[in-house]
Amino acid sequence: MAVPARKASKSKKKLRRAHQKILKPEISYDESIGGYRRSHYVSLNGHYKGKKIIK
């Protein structure tokens, strides 16, 4: 037997669909490498937040 609509709260209904949203990646221009990179990711050259992380 199905659960009546009034028994499921609004927040519970929204949680069912919350994971289906498609997001675009955040891309920003980085002056230290002179190119574009994704936010919160290490660049291909090994830079993160303007510092060399990987040799």
From TrEMBL:
One of its GO terms (biological process) is translation. One of its GO terms (cellular component) is large ribosomal subunit. It holds the Pfam family Ribosomal_L32p. It comes from the Bacteria. Keywords: Ribonucleoprotein, Ribosomal protein. One of its GO terms (molecular function) is structural constituent of ribosome. InterPro entries: Ribosomal_bL32, Ribosomal_bL32_bact, Ribosomal_zn-bd. NCBIfam families: rpmF_bact. PANTHER family: 50S RIBOSOMAL PROTEIN L32, LARGE RIBOSOMAL SUBUNIT PROTEIN BL32. Belongs to the bacterial ribosomal protein bL32 family. This is Large ribosomal subunit protein bL32. It comes from Tetragenococcus muriaticus 3MR10-3.
